[in-house]
Amino acid sequence: MKAVCFGEIMMRLNPVGYRRFRQAEEFQASYAGGEANVAVSLVNYGIETAYVTKVPAHEIGSCVIDTLRKFGVDTKWVLRGGPRLGIYFVEKGASQRPSKVIYDRAGSSIALAEPSEFDWENIFKGSDWFHFTGITPALSENMAAACMDAVKEAKRQGLTVSCDLNYRNKLWSKERAGEVMSSLMPYVDVCIANEEDAADVFGIRAENTDVNSGKLDKEGYVSVAKQLVDRFSFKKVAITLRTSISASVNNWAGMLYDGEPHFSKEYQIQIVDRVGGGDSFGGGLIYSLMNGADADEAIEFAVAASCLKHTIEFDFNLVTADEVKSLALGNASGRVQR
Amino acid sequence: MKAVCFGEIMMRLNPVGYRRFRQAEEFQASYAGGEANVAVSLVNYGIETAYVTKVPAHEIGSCVIDTLRKFGVDTKWVLRGGPRLGIYFVEKGASQRPSKVIYDRAGSSIALAEPSEFDWENIFKGSDWFHFTGITPALSENMAAACMDAVKEAKRQGLTVSCDLNYRNKLWSKERAGEVMSSLMPYVDVCIANEEDAADVFGIRAENTDVNSGKLDKEGYVSVAKQLVDRFSFKKVAITLRTSISASVNNWAGMLYDGEPHFSKEYQIQIVDRVGGGDSFGGGLIYSLMNGADADEAIEFAVAASCLKHTIEFDFNLVTADEVKSLALGNASGRVQR
Amino acid sequence: MKAVCFGEIMMRLNPVGYRRFRQAEEFQASYAGGEANVAVSLVNYGIETAYVTKVPAHEIGSCVIDTLRKFGVDTKWVLRGGPRLGIYFVEKGASQRPSKVIYDRAGSSIALAEPSEFDWENIFKGSDWFHFTGITPALSENMAAACMDAVKEAKRQGLTVSCDLNYRNKLWSKERAGEVMSSLMPYVDVCIANEEDAADVFGIRAENTDVNSGKLDKEGYVSVAKQLVDRFSFKKVAITLRTSISASVNNWAGMLYDGEPHFSKEYQIQIVDRVGGGDSFGGGLIYSLMNGADADEAIEFAVAASCLKHTIEFDFNLVTADEVKSLALGNASGRVQR
Amino acid sequence: MKAVCFGEIMMRLNPVGYRRFRQAEEFQASYAGGEANVAVSLVNYGIETAYVTKVPAHEIGSCVIDTLRKFGVDTKWVLRGGPRLGIYFVEKGASQRPSKVIYDRAGSSIALAEPSEFDWENIFKGSDWFHFTGITPALSENMAAACMDAVKEAKRQGLTVSCDLNYRNKLWSKERAGEVMSSLMPYVDVCIANEEDAADVFGIRAENTDVNSGKLDKEGYVSVAKQLVDRFSFKKVAITLRTSISASVNNWAGMLYDGEPHFSKEYQIQIVDRVGGGDSFGGGLIYSLMNGADADEAIEFAVAASCLKHTIEFDFNLVTADEVKSLALGNASGRVQR
Amino acid sequence: MKAVCFGEIMMRLNPVGYRRFRQAEEFQASYAGGEANVAVSLVNYGIETAYVTKVPAHEIGSCVIDTLRKFGVDTKWVLRGGPRLGIYFVEKGASQRPSKVIYDRAGSSIALAEPSEFDWENIFKGSDWFHFTGITPALSENMAAACMDAVKEAKRQGLTVSCDLNYRNKLWSKERAGEVMSSLMPYVDVCIANEEDAADVFGIRAENTDVNSGKLDKEGYVSVAKQLVDRFSFKKVAITLRTSISASVNNWAGMLYDGEPHFSKEYQIQIVDRVGGGDSFGGGLIYSLMNGADADEAIEFAVAASCLKHTIEFDFNLVTADEVKSLALGNASGRVQR
Amino acid sequence: MKAVCFGEIMMRLNPVGYRRFRQAEEFQASYAGGEANVAVSLVNYGIETAYVTKVPAHEIGSCVIDTLRKFGVDTKWVLRGGPRLGIYFVEKGASQRPSKVIYDRAGSSIALAEPSEFDWENIFKGSDWFHFTGITPALSENMAAACMDAVKEAKRQGLTVSCDLNYRNKLWSKERAGEVMSSLMPYVDVCIANEEDAADVFGIRAENTDVNSGKLDKEGYVSVAKQLVDRFSFKKVAITLRTSISASVNNWAGMLYDGEPHFSKEYQIQIVDRVGGGDSFGGGLIYSLMNGADADEAIEFAVAASCLKHTIEFDFNLVTADEVKSLALGNASGRVQR
Question: Residue E117 gets which letter from DSSP?
Fold first, then answer.
């Protein structure tokens, strides 16, 4: 089994601990991004995965290569060149103080890359799954075109295609997102979304849900998933269900809809690092589906995986499939393993 | 609008994270103090604020100047000279283990300063508000006299005067505190106190309240505030209502009394750093009152501001007015802001 | 009053904060072990305590000596020589992610030491209490023999002997453990165990208890203690009662059985570092018993002591007897001590 | 005496110690730039100095304000807005391994600012000196125009104007630099350059000098200075004389030409941080000239100041005028000052 | 071009900066070893390289895999299993205080591996060069046998074989080393040694050389090389020439003998980290020879490469071939590269 | 052999690396002082040593006890109580930038202690050597009296008494120093001084010596030693000979005068931490003399010991006697010890 992920990868800079930006004299540097986070999840679970992106030819670009290689991602298709690597600054929140993310990603090597630089025919050769998110086509018109090239070739070669809607209002308007994403969705088999994406991108709303209220309405999610399937003929729709009690404590669950809704159990999480939580859900889901898990297993694995991600520093979900399965099977007591 | 704060500023030394003093091989150094913390709150909210103190002429004294300037406090009236900067050591508690503060502040430059060194007439020129706390007159007889000079001149020039009672039993006896503070209070318009100060300094007690029990009696607070107003003709009395569930979790609320009691909503806080929490309440309150907020708005702003302070490392409350307002208006879910 | 503890002491290496092993570029190094942790507890409470072990003659071995001396443990009986110091790697868990411990202790100087290297007659001279745990005889046949030598000499000189069962399945089988420990128990006065040890070592089970379920059955513990007393004629059996809600939050209590069960109050703990929690219970218990506390006082002190340990980084329980007593007497609010 | 500096200020990110970029898991963050470094030097010597630039309205932009304020720079004329703050990455070299700087400054708020945003008439009111470098006009056509506006207004108001040529080949070609700088130079009184700038920008060469050979020819420098004065009628030309023995050891001297050459003594420096060394020379020179020092005093102060800079981490030259004078007067033994 | 390296890889633990072991509260962790260091050098220069070793199946073993992958080493042939990873502790010296290394490598997974676990036939398929050092056969009899299997198969498949003598007196006696190494040398084409190895292992001495005197005699090295070639028919012998002026400053050169001696230029190095210096010489040499460099080019590249290594923290020589060539061509001034 | 040292011990706070005070956000904390540094040297060489001082009863005071115990110093005679622990801030210099020390030691527990608190009769029982420095009597009149009590009792019990003149102009005037020290010297056997102390305290000058010039005149030192012996009948006078080339490089030697001058060899040192250098000379000298070394051996040991101290962070000279001897015997090449 082999997978391909496509998207940006950025330098993440965050102050140490709970320091605010204005208190930071040093930043921890890591390299991550929505699709790269999924790629790392997949290799951690044992799936050979290639990442497709473009980073500068200088040493900071080399750090991206080192990072992907470190965790076992195939970097053969990472292009080198262009002006810069995107950066995002993360300030960790606590209790009533929310986390903050400042993006400095404009003009990155990947955003400026030409669609023709990506040799999708060879990239996909021998692969089974292609994953991208709504961030990639939002980066630039070039990247929107590159996504279209990719999904067409992926379908031509028979890969399963998954897409996490991941709407970013700093990158494009809802109108433009709706237009571009609507053109890509017909090639997508598995659609992943959080509670707001479907509304932001496609105007599809979960009724009776207020993301700030802490109350989530299961029926609303089913209705959203059903509408998505109706409009785009997805084989599956997966939705994350986050209840933000505070910046330190979240409830977390998920639903996989394949005609029928499959709800996971819900976890209450004391958060270590919340960034990358959604991506780890996608990673867990894709792994499960690639391994032939049924819908209930798949959603439980995806939610347990992303539950664990919230306890791990930085974006990558550095867990093994065994660790996820142990939690999914109910071992949530956190007892010391000697 | 312009404010003046007067008091000591010390070097704060705390071990990293939850290390106990005996485990500390390094200390994080910051510079803070009850009145300086208020000054930084005010400039963060956009109010021009001068700090009046005295620090040694050597480089450690210069660090104080740098720190105040960094956050925008006017340091024109900071005197240089004298023997030393006071120091306090802070050990962060967790769960059932309380935080500890060790003071090493005797013989500081400010404690030994002469009242005549402070040119109150010029200091207050063009200012609207003067704030000090019960710590300043407790430092030395000289400082008690300096406070008297200050409040008299402040009233002469028509400034509003606020005082946080802030009783420190390591600095003076209850008797001496009662005597000195009673002589200063007639010049004070807004009195700020926590649940114990009124009893310690003036013998005024909140009935039916046990600070260790976790139960707070609203009626008791109103009774204390009323007695304070009756005795000293304060225009307003503000009281913080802390319920210490553990060193890691506190409930936090406040009450502003202006003839009528105005209680804020209550927050349950997962604590990052509790030191400076009371000062951030004062800072929020003064800002609100200077901006003409009504009593309900003012107490909600003050409590939301100090709620956020508990999530921030070190004494200073590095938040903007917009961040406080967002929380005061009910957005406490801590969702990531991108 | 003087105590002697006997066992291994290892280098503990843990990543900073909540980092996983695979994220660690640096490790915090400390030196600890089940019996050494007890020794440090005892000296912290004011009891003169010697530690008996063997560490290499090189500088890393000297770090062990430095560490024990730092906290006041008598190192006169620490042998120098042999090939290496055992190491254990600790990864701190959070929320649903459990802590992990990887041991690298085979072939250590203490495991390879000869029983004859320990001059028990002189070691015990003037001492009142001898403590070891089930880890020491598990290290090697030599150490099993050394334990037998020790307990016999201890009884000959009239010391009270305590043993924490501390079963480690990486070190020996349940069968071998049962055999060796059964031969040592007749010399033991005070037996300390957690909820699983009695079953693992002696096949004695607490009925109706599932350690992963979060439910503990008081009756079961009494039944286990009673069986232990019946089989080995212990004067006292102390059992820790941990309910692992998550890796971040545990409930914690204890029971001392001396014919009658004495249950402590239960604490809910927000965990800073859980390793050494059981040892700090033993340290608190031994101190109390050496000081003539009655059973209720002793179990309350032991549990309060170990509650505090969970809030302290690394294995050692760096608290004073006054701090423990304050908590045991009900001051659990964690209010700042100035 | 009052000065104004104009230019970019960036976030500087450098790995800790001698780590290479590929080894960096964290970066130390500071905020600096050629002209800002001069501004900080000036305030350290007691000269009131305003910095003119533009930084984003977000928190990272606020960090720039905090940094400038911390050291006492007047930030009244710092504009807020625009897309991003420029970044440069610094890798510290050692011995035969050179330091490396990677710039990521394209598209910054200052580069995209409009010339009309800068109110030079009010900015210069009451000031005596205006300083900029060749980096500022290189940022964009807008900034070249802003520089022209600035120097014209500065001359109109009678300020002395200094410019450090500071050629950056990543920002513009030699041709474009020569063209723009030639149009600005007629307004400049004091020209500062290193051994290569005059050749790169104006094609004026120091004969018989090879910057890699470690041999510097005094006559060549005089010839360059003379040619600069002849072409642009500068009142003074100052040139730094660096002999790079290795990345760890440099020789350092300077020459001030005012019709006659004035050479400073030469220092052999064990380097702590070399970045900002040239700027600290400019800062020392401007201070001296503003204070009426004669040419020999001025060049000795400038060189001693920049010698000290090489011993200080990060770009800013955090020394007092007294410290510089002590070194300039010959106290170079580095004996402990108690 | 493809290379294979075979040997141990250990966890390296060193205190931060110049701290002594007894001052270390934390250790920086990296993973390295004589042959792994060569492997990383080779991939840095662009040569596909596989590393053959065995590490435990637990997470600390996974850190080895991560590290090798990060820098691009092929880990397909890294076996998982066995009891432990070897460890070495490094204390960095300064001035007259020497660096110290404490090894804790006994009983490692690689030392206990069976020769039959290594599938040399497949490992070498398609490769051109095989490198090992005298440390590998010293680990255990099994590893000595594995080395013999490896060199025989390597020669059978026509690979060039290089061996760095690397005598370690903590691992085996001179007698045993001489015996085993003598049996392996007939299969070796390129022999690498420092000034003491030939004497320690084969009793071949460089006359007139005293490694502590700081004086090195070129003739002596030629004589040693000639004797080595005479005895074992090596095609080439490379010797490093270190003059240890102090722990902070070393002179460094090398000689390649291929019938004729080829001496490199000599560098005086201000040392950042000396460990791995010899391995980086080997890495540079092998790369040059694989690329068809002539003897003079090869020795200059090897020495320049290892000169740079001394300026880089930890064992790995993280430089590019371009950086090495720049230094080898004479650019040693360490000027900043922007 | 047993020794006693008497004096203050302070908290030392220094910024990390070469940061200036104004750049420090954290300080490394250690506990040291002139006489405590000697005590630690002595125990490192194997001499049982007690330290006599007074520190506060709070946790920061306990850190002093922990530190002394850690390195094996007997703390039985350390008094607890009084208001505060003295503090000194150390900023490390580099190249032409000198190190700076800021003292904040007034009002310390030891300075305020009563002479009668020290039970010299019991303290000295069984001891052979008593060491103090000129700092102790400078702390307060009480401490001057305590020193007099101590030296009288030491002589009564037959101990050898050594004193390092250690003049501190921040603590007392030259006049007062001369007066008090002159009264104590008759009880002193071994006098230790640096190149300035004899002049500052007793007006005895080394002719033809300029401490800033880098030139030291051997004859001058002999003349000073001779005058000291003539005036106070010292058995031995030891003088350190420091040539400060820069803050990074010092030459270092010593002379022991016992009627005849004995000069050591001279070392050129690349400095890691210079503070405590003089104390380590005293420690090495006392150890040698206690062990019956002849004058040449003693001065070589003392100088080699203090040479090594300059390569070690913080005040304490953490070396073994074997390490010192190895250097004294000429092994200064700093080659790695494996």
Answer: G
Whole-model pTM: value is 0.97
A12 beta partners: A30, A88
Question: What count of residues does chain F have?
Answer: 338
User: What is the least distance, in Å, from the CA of C173 to any CA of chain E?
Assistant: 17
Residues from B contacting C (CB-CB < 8 Å) are: 17-20, 22-23, 93-101, 103, 168, 170, 211-212, 214, 244-249, 274-275
Token reading at A35: 């699709």
Cβ contact D69–B72 (<8 Å): yes
* Angle between helix E34-44 and helix E277-290 axes, rounded to 10 deg: 50
Per-residue pLDDT tens listing for chain F (338 residues) = 999 999 999 999 999 999 999 999 999 999 999 999 999 999 999 999 999 999 999 999 999 999 999 999 999 999 999 999 999 999 999 999 999 999 999 999 999 999 999 999 999 999 999 999 999 999 999 999 999 999 999 999 999 999 999 999 999 999 999 999 999 999 999 999 998 999 999 999 976 655 555 455 788 999 999 999 999 999 999 999 999 999 999 999 999 999 999 999 999 999 999 999 999 999 999 999 999 999 999 999 999 999 999 999 999 999 999 999 999 999 888 899 98
Give the three-class secondary structure for D44: helix
**Do residue A66 and residue D22 have CB atoms under 8 angstroms apart?**
yes
- Chain C contacts of F66, Cβ < 8 Å? 70-71
Do the beta carbons of residue F284 and residue F38 sit within 8 Å?
no
Write the class of the CATH domain E2-328.
Answer: alpha beta
What does the buried/exposed string (b/e) look like for E57-74 if buried means 16 or more CB atoms within 10 Å of the residue's CB?
ebbbbbbbbbbbbbbbbb
C-alpha distance from residue F241 to each of C245, F169, F194, F282, F290 (Å): 65, 20, 7, 13, 23
Cα separation values, E152 from E78, E112, E127, E166, Å: 20, 21, 14, 21
Domain B35-53+116-328 has CATH 3.40.1190.20: yes
Q: What are φ and ψ of residue D6, in 5° steps?
A: -140, 130
Q: Is B62 exposed, middle or buried (0-12, 13-18, 19+ CB in 10 A)?
A: middle
The predicted complex's ipTM stands at 0.95
- Residue E214 pLDDT grade (very low, low, confident, very high; cuts 50, 70, 90): very low
What is the longest distance spanned by two Cα atoms in chain A? 53
Q: Nearest by CB to C96, which of A17, A334, A336?
A: A334
E69 to A67: CB separation less than 8 angstroms, yes or no: no
Q: Which residues contact A223 (CB under 8 A, 6 or more apart)?
A: A206, A207
Nearest CA in chain C to E22: C63
Sign of CA dihedral F35, F36, F37, F43: positive
How far are the Cα atoms of B149, C211, C218, C244 from residue C215, in angstroms, in the given order?
Answer: 65, 7, 10, 9
Of the partner residues C304, C310, C334, the one whose CB lies closest to the CB of residue B244: C334
> In sequence order, what are the beta bridge partners of C321?
none
Which residue, among F290, F230, F248, has the nearest Cα to F99 in the 3D structure?
F248
The pLDDT of residue F296:
98
